[in-house]
């Protein structure tokens, strides 16, 4: 193969390997099919990263605090 032919062959292989073939880590689904299945799930079903989890816990603590009674005039 020439260099330009090799680039075409390699790009075809890379595209198949990364985008079209089923991946074991995705439950033997193609990446496109896996992405579609994830887009229809409940957005609250995922687990946030540790840094995001901390900020969410802090916000939850703020909303759980009892509110002071409002003055009636």
Question: Average pLDDT, to the nearest integer?
Answer: 77
* Strand composition percent: under 5%
Major beta-sheet overview = none
- Alpha-beta content class: mainly alpha
Which range best describes the helical content: under 10%, 10-25%, 25-40%, 40-55%, 55-70% or over 70%? 55-70%
- Global shape: rod-shaped
What is the radius of gyration computed over CA atoms, rounded to a whole number of angstroms?
A: 24 Å
Helices, by number, come to: 3
Order of helices and strands: HHH
Number of strands: 0
- Could you tell me how far the N terminus lies from the C terminus, measured between alpha carbons in angstroms? 87 Å
Low-pLDDT segments = none
Describe the structure in brief.
By secondary structure, the protein is mainly alpha-helical.
How would you characterize the overall build of this protein?
By secondary structure, the protein is mostly helical. 58% of the residues lie in helices and 0% in strands. The longest helix has 18 residues, at 3-20. It is rod-shaped and about 85 Å long.
Descriptive tags:
mainly alpha, 73 residues
Topology:
Blueprint: H1 3-20, H2 31-39, H3 50-64
